[in-house]
Predict the structure.
Amino acid sequence: MANNTSKEELAQRLKSALGDFSCFLRQCGKHPDIEVIIHDANNVLNHRFEVLGSGLITSDPIDWHCDFKSGFKWPHGKYYKKYIRVNKGDNSDVKVPIELSRCHHLLWLGEAYLITQDDKYSSEVVNEICHWIKENPYAYSINWSCAMDVAIRAVNWMYALNMIMDSKIVDDKFCKQVTRSLLEHVYFIFHNLEKGAPYSGNHYASNLSGLIFLGLLFKDIPSVRTYFDFGLSELYREIRNEVLPTGVHYEKSISYHRLMVELFAYPVFLLQKAGFDVPLDIYYRVKSMFDFVHSYTKPDGTAPMVGDNDDGRLLPFVKYAFNYHAYLRSVAFCKYKDRVYESLPTIDSFFLFPETCILTFDSSVKLLSSRPKLFQDAGFAVLRNEEFYVFFNGSGIGMYYAELNKSVIATHNHADLLSFDLSLGGCNVFIDAGSYVYTSSLQAHNEFRSTRKHNTINIDNLDQYHIEQDKFWAYSNFKIPSVLEYAETIQCQKVSGEYSWSFPEDTVRHKRIIEVYSDRMFVIDEFKCVNEHLFQSCFMLDPGIRVESVNHNTIELFHPEIGRRLRLIVGDIDHVDIRIEVDRVSFSYGCLNETSKIIMEFRQKGNFKYSLKIVPINE
């Protein structure tokens, strides 16, 4: 029986499901991320954690039930369905304890053991898992309140265990205990599935991913095989439902797209390794998800922060900056052997393909940039040349528009139609502000999803959608953007999108056109309306950008990192009030950075055009 599993048997199960990690040091011992892994593992040894913007805190002994940021603790020993996860009356954030209990940090301990063969790391993995099991009895803890977190925790335990199984610290007693808990995890997931109606998202995908991983671990147990078979058919169904033909996940958040790549691709890779015949359409959709990552990745390896962001990952083998997505290019290159993805190898690639991944560290590898591309079914476009990178967002509400008959819809999108991100010479200029937090502050959550927080136009100080101020993730009166149009010549890349604002006695049609040339670009906003309105065009600057000067229609920016200046010239309209305001952006959940925001404000009526010319100044 699996719940009487010996060390030898559990080691064989893990190796069969995940692969042989014994050659990690030989393959990855010279990787530049090794120092990062050891540093983070040593913090974990000292029970020092940094969770969702908490800062580096010490929790010794580890408190698995505490929000380190607010100090709020969820009570021990309470049945999981009786917890109140979200309380609008305080600033507690349930994401903090459940993020810690996803146990991503055990990966770094396991990797540190593979690097050093020092049992202090394997001992910490064993001790923390035993402590977690003791402090979180099955179904009686806040950390059993969401099947998504249960699934992610189980997968991270599996990988960490596979890294340390040859340690003398791991014995039969521990293997029996952890096997029993993993069986409880798979039972819990199957009986608490988070399937949505009419559509599902990242929570249900996490459930299915967990069923696949655990099903391959315990494939000989009839009940688990039933869970696995269900998870397999549903995983294929959800990939077909949720991944648009161009490869974009239908929630249309860049952060969640990265999470969904891991949740869909990693179990599919494991299935192929186990000899399953993955349907060709599933293979295509998963590969196309990597294609989208390749297209949206900026020259510095980071991603635009379009839509919501909660720092969600499945398997963070290295603690990268959260908006760094370029490691997925390495994963795609190792899997598909397509030179378009060619990049420096990552630790992630080894653990996903331990038998076939050959890591070389040739610093002469030239990272290939993707070509300009339109993702019409998602409403995204990427324009790029040697000077400029532009990510254009005309996506609208996520998932499918069949839900538009509802007066209120929950979504991970923001009120950011026709917003765009801009990089110059590999450095960010205009950025998306991110998300900051979810349930710990409804006011802050609403601020970061508002139109004013994005590089687009707001009219009469209103948001493009009505943000339901007392409901998380909810909008009403949403707008449906028109189809994006894209054109390309030798000299110019051009994209446009359009939508309409509805007012009691007027309709305002807004069309935005972006034209990118080799040495300049234009942002052209065309409007059609009857009555006079107040228009505000906002641009959120990267914190590294300095505003050098502001004249009546010209702004000069300076980026110290690359020593470049950028001139913004307002055209086609008179009487524009230009001002610079202090604002804040969030590059990772729970973290804030101060920056500047440009606001160009004017009153106008009728049919008119407003343009902004953006020119790099070469000195």
